[in-house]
Amino acid sequence: MKAMVLTGHGGLDKYVWRDDWPKPEPGPMEVLIRVGACGLNNTDVNTRTGWYSKAVSEATTGGAYDSVGEDDPTWGGAPITFPRIQGADVVGEVTAVGEGADPALIGQRVMTNGWLRDWSDPDNMDKTGYFGSECDGGFAEFTTIDARNIAVVSSDLSDAELATFSCSYTTAEGMLTRAGVTDADTVLVPGASGGVGGALVQLAKRRGARVIAMASEAKHEEVKALGPDMILPRAPGDLRAALGGEKVSVVADIVGGPYWPKLIDILERGGRYTCSGAIAGPMVTFDLRTFYLRDLTFTGSTVIAPEVFENVVRYIEQGAIRPVLAATYPLSELRAAQQAFIDKKHTGNIVVSP
């Protein structure tokens, strides 16, 4: 089969296009999927470059770093084996099943849940892996995954549109769940023009919250279509003044970087900060006095509960959320697609299709 194969940590040159890669066979409880489309996400970039290593302290650049720790280059703080086929956000058709998997799945259109679990202990976060990281994923014509990691989706959306949901929207829903967002909250979303940012806007609105989006002014019209109550520039010099009289109870952040202290400083007493990324840089200035004197709560969000994926699928089928598909590239042009993703060339999600 055709596949884009990652050969090691480093720059985009670490991807090698192969048209003779062995087609996988489904094992026990697995399904074989003919990939229709696969979304890109930050995990793909950060795993390729080794950005998750504590040896790296700069922002996500998408390029190779001078030093990457050998013991902690992935999201889970452990090495992975190469060659590896990345790609977590698969939509496609089941063409075969392994022993124990339901044959009725053959011919069904499905989307994947990227969190791999020990199904005898599914809530144990220490026993999780990620599709396209700890095992081969969807940057190929075919892929295999446990049948319990897929959902049959009833939707008129295209494969490419559906492939925008799995990572971005489950990440966003997981963040909002950890922060306990309700209709009593005002949620500030930095980076609202990105895939997760746009999902945060929609999903927070679905919960009835008031939403303030932050994005570069060139992208305000596109962000406006997601339905925020207010849109601010990406990094106002005086954030409190830009907010006017708004009181922010939740900051939902995947940006981090040097602007981070200003985000924390405007949280109201008893406010919550939830985080699932640091694309502008993982090292921030943290004033503990603001943290404890304001009675703030911080939550990190990576591994999500299985029901979060189930909720997102239900929202799709109800039409409660919509895809933000920015561009589709041929799988053979994955390097160009990922560079566009890194450069934030587009507003929303980018997918590749075999």
Characterize the structure shown.
This protein folds into two domains: about 5-165 and about 325-354, Quinone Oxidoreductase, Chain A, domain 1 (Alpha-Beta Complex), CATH 3.90.180.10; about 170-300, Rossmann fold (3-Layer(aba) Sandwich), CATH 3.40.50. The strands form four sheets. Strands 3, 4, 5, 8, 9, 16 and 17 form a seven-stranded mixed β-sheet that branches. Strands 12-11-10-13-14-15 form a six-stranded parallel β-sheet. The N and C termini lie close together (about 10 Å). It is globular and about 60 Å long. α8 links the parallel β14 and β15 (about 295-300). The chain is built from ten helices and 17 strands. The model has no long low-confidence stretch (mean pLDDT about 95). It has about 350 residues and is of the alpha/beta class. About 25% of the residues lie in helices and about 25% in strands. α3 (about 165-180) crosses α4 (about 195-205). Keywords: NADP, Oxidoreductase. Pfam families: ADH_N, ADH_zinc_N. This is Alcohol dehydrogenase. One of its GO terms (molecular function) is NADPH binding.
- The count of helical stretches stands at 10
Give helix and strand order, one letter per element, not per position.
EEEHEEEEEEHHEHEHEHEHEHEHEHE
Helicity range of the residues? 10-25%
- Unreliable spans: none
CATH superfamily of the largest domain: Medium-chain alcohol dehydrogenases, catalytic domain
Note the gap between the termini: 10 Å
| CATH third-tier fold name of the largest domain | Quinone Oxidoreductase, Chain A, domain 1
For the largest beta-sheet, the strand count, sense and barrel status come to: 7 strands, mixed
The CATH architecture of the largest domain comes to Alpha-Beta Complex
Shape: globular
Fraction in beta strands: 15-25%
The counted number of beta strands is 17
CATH C-level label of the largest domain: Alpha Beta
Structural class: alpha/beta
Q: State mean pLDDT (0 to 100 scale).
A: 96
What count of structural domains?
2
